[in-house]
C-alpha cells in the first residue's frame, strides 16, 4: 500500500454516524403515544432571513399528556410557526390563542400509524442519501489520488473500505427504521 495516500475512514465513519444521529432525532419527532416537545425539533421556520428551529422562536411546553404548547416570543412569527407545523407532515392541527400555539395530539388510528411509518421511511431515505453522498466524497478522494500517483491495487483497497463502511451504515439505517416502524404500529 502507498504511504502517500490514506482515506480518513475514521472521519468518514464519524460523518456517517452523524447521519444516523440525525435520523434518530427525526424519529424522535414521530411520537406514537404521548406528547413531547422533541417532536417539533426537526421543524424549521423561515424567520429573520434564515431557517430556524421552533424552540429558538418560542417556549415549548407539554402541559398535558396529549397537548404541546408553543409560546411564540415574536407576534410576527406566530403565523410562520403555525404554517411550518401544518406543513411538517406530523398530522397535527395547530390552534392559535394569541401568541400561544396549542397542538392537541390526536389518538393514533390505524391510518395515522400507516402515515407515520411512511414518514419514517422518508426520513430513513434521506439518511441513506446523506450516507451515499459521503461515500461519493470518499470515492472522489480516491479518484484524485489515482490521478496523482495511487496504484490500481491501492485504489481498489480503499474503494472496498469505503463501500464496506457505507454498506454497514445503510444496514444500520434499515435496522433503525424497522424498529421505529414496529414501535409506531404497536397498539
Shape: elongated
Mean pLDDT: 86
The CATH topology name of the largest domain reads: Topoisomerase I, Chain A, domain 4
Q: How many strands appear in the DSSP assignment?
A: 6
Give the biggest beta sheet: 4 strands, antiparallel
The total tally of domains equals: 2
Taking strands numbered 1, 2, ... along the chain, how are they ordered across the largest sheet? 3-4-6-5
For CATH, the homologous superfamily of the largest domain is named as Ribosome-recycling factor
Instruction: Output the radius of gyration.
Output: 21 Å
What's the CATH architecture name of the largest domain?
Answer: Orthogonal Bundle
Subcellular location: Cytoplasm
Keywords: Cytoplasm, Protein biosynthesis
Pfam family, one: RRF
InterPro entries: Ribosome_recyc_fac, Ribosome_recyc_fac_dom, RRF_sf
What's the quick description here?
55% of the residues lie in helices and 16% in strands. It is α+β, with helices and mostly antiparallel strands and 187 residues long. It has 2 domains: 9-25 and 109-185, Topoisomerase I, Chain A, domain 4, CATH 1.10.132; 34-104, Gyrase A, domain 2.
